[in-house]
Records
---
Amino acid sequence: MTEAEASRRSGEGDSARAAVLRGMTVEDVPAVLVVERATFPADAWSEGMLRGELADQPRTRHYVVALVAGEIVGYAGLAAAADQADVQTIAVVAEHQGAGIGGLLLNELLAEASRRGAGSVFLEVRADNPQARGVYDHFGFEKVGIRARYYEDGTDAIMMMRKLGDSNG
Ligand SMILES: CC(C)(COP(=O)(O)OP(=O)(O)OC[C@H]1O[C@@H](n2cnc3c(N)ncnc32)[C@H](O)[C@@H]1OP(=O)(O)O)[C@@H](O)C(=O)NCCC(=O)NCCS
């Protein structure tokens, strides 16, 4: 897969941190699953689901990991087909949230969607996840619908969409 690299230095938190993005490979699966299970205790993806996604790279998928001091602290994945793309997942470990890493990951997915010619990017977010909804609002995503009781515990999914234009910021 195409190596996606970007870096950003953030002054937030106790100390400035540098995060680097690169493409996710099957070698990353164990470390990604640790983050996945810690971040989504109620509905973590299985190893098989994650491997299935990676098997579709680069054809319809683009997955990246965020590294701080060589350790995986976050990841995100995009599905793209024709002129539409979907954010499949995005997560940053709790200790590194709020430091710009989620934004770095999201920008990379938006840039990849643009590179692949998508005109819009969709995602679903739990109605009871104001933090993520705030981040998506901030990135220009708009609510386009609700999937009632979409999640196993009966929580609604909010569907959001962002059109891709001149800038991905
Ligand atoms: C959602 C998540 C990926 C965001 O990652 P993060 O590293 O904490 O986000 P960032 O610090 O990069 O913030 C991204 C931007 O959103 C802004 N933002 C953050 N929280 C916000 C809020 N509640 N409302 C509005 N804007 C917000 C930040 O200011 C930042 O903007 P900037 O880059 O212009 O300064 C992360 O919190 C996470 O993993 N949460 C748990 C898993 C989850 O809910 N995943 C999404 C499932 S749909």
---
Amino acid sequence: MNNLSVVENRERFDLDKYLRVAGATRPELFDWSAPGPRLDDDSLFCLGYMMDIELHTIVYMREMLSTQVIEDPAITAFLSCWGYEEFFHSRTIAKLLESQGASIDEQRFVELRQRRAADHLEQKVARIVSRLTRHFPAIHMTWGAINELSTLTGYQALADRARHPLLTTVLSRIIKDERRHFSFYFNQARIRLKDRAAQLLTSFAVRRFWSPVGSPVRGDSDMRHVCRTLFSDARGPGRLALIDSTIARLPGFEWFDLASRRCLGASPRQAINHANRLANAER
Ligand SMILES: [Fe+2]
Ligand SMILES: [Fe+2]
């Protein structure tokens, strides 16, 4: 299923069904006895970055739950399972890295969280702003939609790049979960962005503060490394343009092109033209 068909299915997001099936993607699901060929260093770097983002979900969830989002039972039901699933994505990717000979030190996660001391201030600001406007959840839901779609696009790009049997099996399974996450957030964002004030507030926040998923956790330099690895090939700009055009379908988000701009430093059209020129030059 491509990203657009996920959007077409958005009306059908079924919370009860999600709650029944959530949490199945765990390390025990996979056969680790045949780790396959060694992945290159860039692929391993991307996997490490992805593992860190997945584990950071609990911190992001704490930020979300400190706002008025906690008053919505549908959102809190979803978040309960979402956090569980993302935690096991991180564990599964850690197992994948270990199958490649990497050793994962728990201290890594402690250090990442200590680096993010600014979280506390952001959390306080978010809590205050959240009390001032009933539209605050629109920002979180839109943010979630962009990040889930970026994440699943990144996983797909890594699977296509690496062409590694075990990695493809694991990531295909994780991508299925990410599609459901995206569907939930997109559906919620669409509903909460009906109001013009919500559109203006959310557009402002996204324009001003959004950066590619993981960069607030791992830093801009690592984010650029991942973007270069996953999206600088001929198909990369098209993948990012699809994120942009999908998010642009949200009310008030017709302007959205930040996946391309902040990942490749160019508009979707410029990035695709550049990729086409490179592909033609190689022929
Ligand atoms: Fe995940
Ligand atoms: Fe997710």
